Amino acid sequence: MSSGPIQSMLPHRVLLALLVTLGAVTAPHVLHLPPWMTPLIIVCAAWRYQAGSRGWRLPNRWVLLLLTLVTAGGVVMHYGTFLGRDAGVAMLSLMLGLKLLEMRTRRDTQVVLYLGYFLVVTQFLYSQSLLIAGWMLVTVWALTALLITVNRRTTPSGWFPHSRLAATMVAQALPLMIILFILFPRVPGPLWGMPDDDARGVTGLGDSMTMGEISQLSQSAEVAFRVEFDGPPPAPPQRYWRGPVLPAYDGRSWRQPDDRGAFRPPLEPLGGEIGYSVTLEPHNRSWIFTLDMPVQISTQVTVGSEYQVERRNPVRERIRYDARSALNYRLDPELRDVDPAPYLHVPENRHPRTRELVRDWRGRSDNDDELIERALQHFRDQPFVYTLHPPRLQDDNVDEFLFNTRRGFCEHFAGAFAAMMRIAGIPSRVVTGYQGGEINPTGNYMIVRQSDAHAWVEIWQEDAGWRRVDPTAWVAPERIELGLDGAVPESDQLPAMARRTQSWTRQLALRWDAVNAYWDRWVLAYGPGLQQRLMDSLGLGQWQRMLSALAVAMLVCTGLLALLILWRQPARRPDPAQRAWERFCRRMETTGLPRRPQEGPRDYARRVATARPDLEQDVEGITSHYIALRYGREPHESELQSLHQRVGRFRPRRA
Amino acid sequence: MSVMPTTLRRVAGPWLDRRLGTPRKQVRLAYRRIFVLPTKAGLAFSALLFGIWLGAVNYTNSMAFLLCFLLLGLGLLAMLHTFRNIAGLSVKAEPARPVFAGEAAHFTLRLENPDLRERPALELRYEWEPTVLVDVPAGTDASAVVSVPTKRRGVMKLGQVLIQTTFPTGLVVAWSWLRLDRSCLVYPAPESGSVPDPEGGSGDAGSRPAEGDDDFHSLRRYQPGDSLRQVAWRTLARGQELQTKRFAGNAASSVWLDYDALPQLAMEQRLSRLCRWILDAEAERRPYGLRLPGKRIPPALGADHQERCLRALALFQP
């Protein structure tokens, strides 16, 4: 039973379906696998196919063991480890490929199918889109149909019944899945550390800014987060999403200080409060984005001395939080308890030409405000160009940018402006985050993309406190009003979704984004936090209550499914011959000679013939036709007609 | 699964008896007669689910949770579907043809499916005998032959037959024990090898013709005790082995097969010898009668007569 000729265990068509399904499961991984692995797996599959159809021999166990060791070594060489996401997926794909060469028994095939299920999961570490969800349903269906086919030890009448049964089972499992998804207690992860490669390819703002970094990020149309506002959304010039604040300057790049104070400076809201919910895509950093300036936030965060909102753990999964912000505010007007020195620091020997320029301005200005005005005017009057593709800067980047290239992206303007302010003796710092956002009319929410990444400057002045100044707005006001698309030259390459032109493909894409937004918001962001909030609102906040609700829901749902599945569909109506025979028996009852319950047709006919010789001929004819139709090898249609006629004509009189 | 350790049998036996009931002609697999447990493959599947769950928690991956719960749902549904595959089935055993002790009795089980659904891949097994597989199409019936080895003569009851299925997924097994009220008549095993002819026939010695080639019937291997007059000397002269001539006249004259004429043998051996004699006599078309203590069947020939005699041997109680 468990062993035997491999051809008979897996008929040709089943084997083919199995290989195709496993191919579909592995295919999305091809891009992550080492380049030599895909051909290896294809060779394994082809070999197994030939073994099934042409009787090729499968390699013996020692050869296979050697091959496993060598290729596993190859994976470790390629990734430097066999742990972690990429290496783990490669190992799994490798095991699947090699297991194909060992697939001799029913059990081996079952192992292969289980590996297939597991490989489906690993795909979610790369993408969790709706399309992938659909793909999951299809692959689970196919794997289940194969599981049924492989497990069945008799020959099925065709592939269709199993496919249909698998589809039925997957459909019936969906309500159970939904109940478990909502009510099964979620444990906050991670359970063990994750190697860094898990976050590779995740884009987002970093903890430092060197000129040229944000322009890189801005070329991605990936969604950074989505926002629903409680009321109308703020006007475009108000859409500053605060991210990492970078006060430490070394003359080249702006970064976060090594020791950030836990001290939170006083914030005085001055009206214009706005409430909103954010669904934040994972970006593998701990920052949380809020509108300038946050006054309230629903998730566990710390607000640092720079008014930067952070979570304790990096955001590795989609999260959702509610927040309130004050659009008008006064932040730390006295700069109490804070040493202003770091906000004024510029290394001595840096930016000599800029220093000269600022000194000149200072001499011609009566106060700070005038000097600030002059600096901003400088950006507007001189031929500065706002572009996604600024030239590379070699040595003193601020001097080079201000006096030579004069082509830059937001970080050039912000960095240069902040440096100028510091030279002028005005405390300043660079703030990075996102500026803008596009309202999706379908679903009425705002999409903020990586292409909206931005950098601006905060300067401190007596009484006013920390004030936002965005030098980019002086160079390219369209950037703030219209977004990146309206600000950069036509010749700059931008991803299609970062352009705001109105085309039907874009409309369609926005609709699709709206569907995805719901998916992200209610399915993918559903973690321990959101579950707790939902349960609280349902009155199931305590875990005992939640577990009871889970048990009850599962029992009820399984009970209903059991009713559906075990509902006995009545057997087919008796066949026409049977019906004709029953009619004959009813007619005979009127003669006073009813058929006895255990009496077969032949015995009955014999008894009738003895008791009523006058009926013998008719009864004999009907009985023999009935027997031929019911038990004969291949009854003919004409025989059935003849039976019907005979029964129809049969009108026995009482004796 | 049908062979349980004795201690378990002692504890579970009464409970099983209550659930399965006493043997009857036809058993309908009602819900309470059916048992369901995961298979080894099902346990491995649970381990797989646990692995997926761990991964889902570690990566806080909602889709991994979705798949984990979808597969868990599939596992639960597998239980229901597997259960459904045998629930409501009616099984009856057809009478088994008598066999000789040592042969396998073949019971034909008729499985009636009253539902509109096919019931594929049902497995029937008697103790550790090979499994019989059968598909029962929708709304009709199918039959499967279960072989039960026999050891002793007499009436052998079918006992309980395991019926189980892992269809559709193989993750879960649903089973029941069919306690069917059927038995098979087991004749004594006919003695093998060479046996002496039944002697002491009923006064038929005079009618045996000494010669007469026209009555010659057949040749048979010589056995100790055969008359030297009947040895086929001619074939012996041709270098063949010693053979005894059989005459048609011999066959025509009836012989009594007598239990009491074999005092040197134990009871079962006597019955075996008698059985062999009956088969030989029937093959030779020689009328035979059977004398057992307390029973006497007059000489005759034919299948019915043979059956009657063999039945008497099978049911013989001293």
Topology:
The complex is a heterodimer of chains A (655) and B (318).
Chain A: H1 6-9, H2 12-26, H3 37-54, H4 61-79, H5 85-100, H6 106-123, H7 130-151, H8 160-183, E1 208-209, H9 213-217, E2 223-229, E3 240-246, E4 248-249, E5 254-255, E6 267-269, E7 273-280, E8 290-291, E9 294-297, E10 302-303, E11 309-310, E12 319-326, E13 329-331, H10 352-364, H11 368-381, E14 385-386, H12 397-405, E15 407-408, H13 410-423, E16 428-435, E17 438-440, E18 445-449, E19 453-461, E20 465-469, H14 471-475, H15 477-482, H16 484-487, H17 504-524, H18 528-538, H19 543-566, H20 576-589, H21 601-611, H22 616-631, H23 637-649
Helix pairs in contact in A: 2-3, 2-6, 2-7, 3-5, 4-5, 5-6, 6-7, 7-8, 8-19, 10-11, 11-13, 12-13, 20-22, 20-23, 21-22, 22-23
Chain B: H1 6-20, E1 26-28, E2 35-38, H2 40-58, H3 62-86, E3 90-93, E4 99-100, E5 104-112, E6 119-125, E7 132-136, E8 141-149, E9 154-157, E10 160-165, E11 172-179, E12 183-187, E13 216-221, H4 233-237, E14 243-247, H5 248-252, E15 255-258, H6 267-284, E16 288-292, E17 295-300, H7 303-314
Helix pairs in contact in B: 2-3, 6-7
